[in-house]
Amino acid sequence: MKSLPEKVQAVKRVYTRLDKEIYAMQQSSGLHCLSGCGECCKKPDIECTPLEFLPLALELYDEGRAEQAWEELQNQHNNLCYVFRPHVTNFGGLCNAYPNRGLICRLFGFTARTNKEGQRELVTCKFIKEEQAQAFIKVTEELKAGKKIPVMSEYYTRLTSIDPTLAEFYPINQAIQKALEVVMHYYAYRRRRKKT
Ligand code: SF4
């Protein structure tokens, strides 16, 4: 069985691989997020697993902010992701923990799923579909012809294999809170020796 630092490392390895594949997909397709956007982060019903937020939770722990974050999450009365900071203009915003964002935050926009007809389709937002229509249509056609891009379900499987007990889905803030609980519980009776 993996220790907590080993699980965090394993999650990070999955992210490194995915980020590389998404970068290649963006380069070849020309698809990209709108500058300063973050509208997808505002969805009120984003579901995630505690596993995908273990790196974030460990970093907050290392910074001595895990308990405070847990309390703030406990007292937060809206569904907006805990680490998302909307712009005052009301359009877009920024992730305040970008290097440690979750799996769904990395997947959305540039990965594929299999639709009801058994075809691969891009899972993306209306901004990309509308403002980068040509590139979007091209990728859609290429996917039908068998082009390989990262597939959501494959990445969930990779992540789940690290620790299936932490791969249940919860609303995003609950998932972050549970990840914090896992880290705080792990180090309640252990010394944290070095940064992972
Ligand atoms: S995926 Fe779409 S909504 Fe989300 S940040 Fe990128 S452009 Fe904006």
3D structure, described in words:
The chain has 196 residues and is mostly helical. The chain has one domain. The chain has helices at residues 4-29, 54-62, 66-75, 103-107, 126-131, 133-144, 152-160, 172-186; strands at residues 47-48, 84-86, 93-95, 111-114, 120-123, 170-171. The strands form three sheets. A two-stranded antiparallel sheet has the order 1-6. It has a two-stranded antiparallel sheet with strand order 2-3. The protein has a two-stranded antiparallel ribbon with strand order 4-5. A hairpin with a 5-residue loop joins β4 (111-114) and β5. The longest helix has 26 residues, at 4-29.
Uncertain runs:
none
Main beta sheet:
2 strands, antiparallel
| Spatial separation of the terminal alpha carbons | 17 Å
Q: How large a portion of the residues is in β-strands, by DSSP E?
A: 5-15%
Spatial arrangement of strands, main beta sheet: 1-6
Number of domains: 1
**Helix fraction by DSSP (H/I, runs of at least 4):** 40-55%
User: Order of helices and strands, N to C?
Assistant: HEHHEEHEEHHHEH
Averaged pLDDT? 96
How does the helix and strand content classify structurally? mainly alpha
Number of DSSP strands?
6
Separate helix tally: 8
Oligomerization category of the chains in this entry: single chain
Whole-angstrom Rg: 18 Å
Shape, principal axes of CA atoms: globular
Bound molecules: iron/sulfur cluster
